[in-house]
Every structure is written in C-alpha cells, then in structure tokens.
C-alpha cells in the first residue's frame, strides 16, 4: 500500500475540506473492545483513529449502567490485553474501578478517541479499495457537521449493547406512570415505597429487582419464558472459572449437566419460585442463542422471601395497572424495562456479507473477527470482555502483518528509486 497520510486537520473552518485520509485503521467505538484494539495495534506499530459517538470512553459503563454494578466475572477474565488490573482491586471490581482501569488503559496506550462523532455510514469503495466512513460531529451546543474519513481498514467495535430494546407492549403509552429502560436506571432510591414492575429476568432484571428491594420498593419481576440461574460462586470458587476449567477436559453437554447439578445443590429447585429452566443447558444456550445465564448475587434470596414477586408475561397495560397473561391485574407505579440490548451495526454499515441482519458477524466464535476488504469486528463474540480481548489481539496481529509487509514494499521501492537517482547523477 502506498503510505497513507493525513491530508487535513480536523479543526474545520469554512474553507477546509471535510474529509481525511487516515493513516491506519479506523476503529468505530471507544468501549473496551475499541480501546483494546487500538492498544494492540499500537504495540504492532500501527496508528489508528478511534471514533466515538459519546463524549467519553466506555460510555456504556459511564452513562448507561446502574450504580451498584460490579463485574460479574472474576477480574482475570475481564482485563484487557497488555495491562492487568491493579493488584489491590477486589475479585469483582466495581463499575467505578472498572472505569478507572479503562481510563488508565487509554492513557497508558495514549489512545485519544475523537469524541462526539457518530458514524452514520460506512461503505467499501471497490474502485479505490478504501472504506468511506461518514460521521456527524456534534460541536459546541448542539451544532452538527458532517465529516468523511477514508481508510484501508475498518474495525467495528460498537458493541452488542449499542441500543436498548424497547418492547412494544399493548397499552404501555396509556400507563401514565414512569417507564424507563434499565440503561437509565441508576438506583432504587427514588422508587422507595413504590410498586415497580421490572420487565425481564436477565442479569439486569434480577439486579434491578434486588436493588429496588434494598431501597424499600416493591418489585414484581416479569418472567415470560425461562431462565438459567446459577450461583456466582460454588464453594468459594467462581462458577464461570469452574466451567472454563471443566471445558478443558469435558464436552460441553457434560459441563452443562454438571453445572446444573451444582446449581441445584447450591440454589435448590428454582422452578418452584417461577424461574423455569430452559431445556437447553446454560453454556449451550449461551453459545447458540447468546442468552446469558443469570449469575445470582442475592436476588434469589429475595425471591424466596417474597420480597421480589415473580410474575408471568404481560398481556397489556392500562392506566396505573398491568394485566398479566394469567389474568391477574396488578396496580403499579413505575415500570423498568430490563428487556436487553441490541447491536446497531445494520443501521450504519453498508455491507451484507460479513455481518448478519441482527448486527453480529455471521460466522460464530472464533471465526467472526475478520471479514473481507479490511473489515474487522471486535467485541461481538457473546463472550463479554474476554471475547473482546481475543478479537483485539487477532485483529492487531493481522493488520500489523499487512502493515509491516506494505512498509517493507514501500522501503524497497524507495531504495530502488534512490538507486536510480544515484546512478543517473553519476552521468
Ligand atoms: C449492565 C451491563 C453489565 C455488564 N457486565 C459485564 C461483565 O461483568 N463482564 C463482561 O465481560 N461483560 C459485561 N457486560 C457486557 C458488555 O457488553 C462488555 O462488558 C463491554 O462493555 C463490551 O465492550 P464493547 O467495547 O464491545 O462495547 P461497548 O462497551 O458497548 O462500547 C461500544 C462503544 O461504541 C460506541 N458507538 C456505538 N455506535 C456508534 C457509532 N455509530 N459511532 C460511534 N460510536 C458508536 C458506543 O457509544 C460505545 O461507547 C455488561 C453489559 C451490561 C449492559
Ligand atoms: N455485570 C453484571 O452483573 C451484569 C449486569 C447486568 C447485565 N449484564 C450483561 O448485560 C447483557 C444484557 O443483559 P440484560 O439482562 O440487560 O438483557 P438480556 O440478558 O437480554 O435479558 C432480557 C430479558 O428481557 C426479557 N424480555 C424481553 N422482552 C420482553 C417482553 N416484551 N416481555 C417480557 N420480557 C421480555 C427477556 O425474556 P426472554 O428470555 O423470554 O426473551 C429476558 O429475560 C448480558 O450479557 C448480561 O450478562 C451483566
């Protein structure tokens, strides 16, 4: 590749062109995956440009998670490449500690994302062999300008949780009380004394319900289908770590069986509290459908004691009320939709070969990190932060090799040109 260089500075004024040729890859998203990719590339000597729609790194963690959140896997499974967590961090770092770690990570690798730049579209131009990435930049106030980047490599790191899923439930608009998504829930403090319907029983729904209890609210949690609840630890050892160790020796179906036996020994029969287990085992379900098992950190105790009321699916809402599929009607004050998240890739990436309609790479882990024509995906493995790490390392190695090869070619051409000049000057 002819070396690429920056043509214009981004400090735009009226006369400056609104496009830039980027030297190296563009990374879309400054969450853990984007930061990990940028850091690994730097180690390979490859510069990159990180575009982030928010005004900070790790915006999911900084702006769209609740206060009591901690990592739910032990820290060794959540650290990014090339920088371990500080030794004094607990086994399960808090959200604040994780954010501080990510900030020190960005500083350590000198990663300076371009904030407030939302990628609107990206498409590969066959003729030139470059990606064209269009962004909208929000400047002071709410002024917006459009900008275009041109690059050889495009790394998609916008995350599995880019947009919140807002279900369309009959009558919700007539309900009248407060309705928020879990991404806007911070703490149960403001719900004290209120009857709150929590829709969804994934890790968010369970933990929001627990938090509401701890703040003297009365949560009812909707479980419309089934859910695997596992203890976070078994005999003082992380359940996740145990599963990872067993997977080294045993087939997945057997590990699933053993996990369910251990869960039954620790938690008892969860079905009697309305938490029906899926017929597929927890690890297989995660691998095939991406559905994460719940790692219990106290909600189950509150369900047993009746402080969290488990209810079946919703039929419809009416003013101040919800009707359930079993005909029961509940008076409620507020609704928290813990109904999950989705990828936003199809809304901006104009490509249909590597990414599927659901915004995930079509090829399952560990094959979904590299597409064609310099397209890569980091953080779409359904394996949380450890998946982001493995993607980032693979991507950086791959681009690093291409980068070194092209620089070698470039050097050869430069030396040849130099030699021609020298031999010409001898005449
Ligand atoms: C409540 C919650 C708790 C979690 N806890 C854990 C945990 O304990 N352990 C674990 O392994 N995983 C956990 N996860 C999963 C989580 O997805 C990962 O931890 C991690 O945040 C993934 O990093 P990412 O960079 O891939 O995605 P994100 O963190 O979502 O970062 C993507 C970034 O891309 C930006 N972006 C999106 N679209 C655009 C665009 N068009 N243009 C520019 N920028 C864009 C976003 O603003 C965001 O900053 C949790 C998720 C949630 C919701
Ligand atoms: N560190 C942590 O402790 C922590 C905390 C929170 C979240 N997370 C992670 O963040 C990711 C997202 O978790 P999440 O809990 O927000 O989402 P999720 O796992 O996708 O769960 C969404 C839940 O909402 C339910 N739901 C969706 N639409 C519904 C409707 N119309 N009516 C009733 N129920 C509905 C789903 O039920 P069905 O199953 O029937 O579809 C499911 O129970 C996961 O990877 C999770 O592990 C981690």
UniProtKB/TrEMBL annotation:
Out of the domains of life, which is the source?
Eukaryota
State the EC number(s). 1.-.-.-
* Catalyzed chemical reaction(s): indole-3-pyruvate + NADPH + O2 + H(+) = (indol-3-yl)acetate + CO2 + NADP(+) + H2O
Keyword annotations: Auxin biosynthesis, FAD, Flavoprotein, Monooxygenase, NADP, Oxidoreductase
Which pathway does UniProt place it in? Plant hormone metabolism; auxin biosynthesis
Mind telling me which InterPro entries this protein's record contains? Auxin_biosynth/cation_transpt (IPR050982), FAD/NAD-bd_sf (IPR036188), Flavin_mOase-like (IPR020946)
For this protein, the record's Pfam families field holds: FMO-like
Q: Which family does it belong to?
A: Belongs to the FMO family.
- According to UniProt, the name of this protein is Flavin-containing monooxygenase
